[in-house]
Amino acid sequence: MKFSPTSVEGVVLVEQERHSDDRGFFARTWCREEFEKAGLNPLLDQTSVSFNQRRGTLRGMHWQAKPHGETKLVRCTQGAIYDVALDLREGSPTHGKWFATELSAENGKALYIPDGIAHGFQTIQERSEVYYMMAGTYHPDSARGARWNDPQFGIEWPLAEIAHMSERDADYADWKAG
């Protein structure tokens, strides 16, 4: 695997090293030892999947408050998404900054998102499936969200029209630190 830092501290792009032949390819997508060597959290508590029928579906921006923070490794296993990580960690040198990249079944990339970073995505193909590997378990009372289009962050989404979004995600208030 290849680990590439991004413009948001602690957020890392993880790329497969594909071994190809006439059958297709084989690639490792996770290895505890390699994650440890890269200084990333190697613990796994949960895996989840999100299926999104329509192009333009938007989910996010979500995270869990301490002490129940989650570290995520996000990969698109079908279709394609525009994946966004937003730094909301107080005292972080990249606080308020965001990083985005395309994750797709074709490119095989994954995004490592540490605890304290909000995560969201917009589907850029119909029938997109997103696979999450997480350190930390879901605690409903710790679930938090920031509005996807809060002008304070200026996230640039690829599709102007949102095909579908949950009422909860649409109703988040403007961000107030603290």
Question: Can you tag this structure with a few keywords?
Answer:
178 residues; 6-stranded antiparallel beta sheet; mainly beta; 6% helix; 2 helices; Jelly Rolls; globular
Notes on the protein architecture:
The chain is globular. The longest helix is centred in the N-terminal third of the chain and has 6 residues. Strands 1-2-10-7-12-5 form a 6-stranded antiparallel beta sheet, with no helix packed on it. The mean pLDDT is 95. Strand 1 and strand 2 form a beta hairpin. The protein has one domain: Jelly Rolls (Sandwich). The protein has 2 helices and 13 strands, in the order E-E-E-E-H-E-E-E-E-E-E-E-E-E-H. 6% of the residues lie in helices and 41% in strands. It is mainly beta and 178 residues long.
Secondary structure: elements and pairs:
Layout: E1 2-5, E2 12-15, E3 19-21, E4 24-26, H1 32-37, E5 46-52, E6 58-64, E7 71-78, E8 80-87, E9 98-104, E10 110-113, E11 117-123, E12 128-135, E13 143-145, H2 167-170
Antiparallel strand pairs: 1-2, 2-10, 3-4, 5-12, 6-11, 6-13, 7-10, 7-12, 8-9, 8-11
Helix content: under 10%
Task: Determine the structural class based on helices, strands and strand pairing.
Answer: mainly beta
Terminus-to-terminus distance:
36 Å
Provide the CATH topology: Jelly Rolls
What's the architecture, going by CATH? Sandwich
Largest sheet: 6 strands, antiparallel
Q: What's the structural domain tally?
A: 1
Name the CATH superfamily assignment: Jelly Rolls
Whole-angstrom Rg? 16 Å
- By CATH reckoning, the class would read Mainly Beta
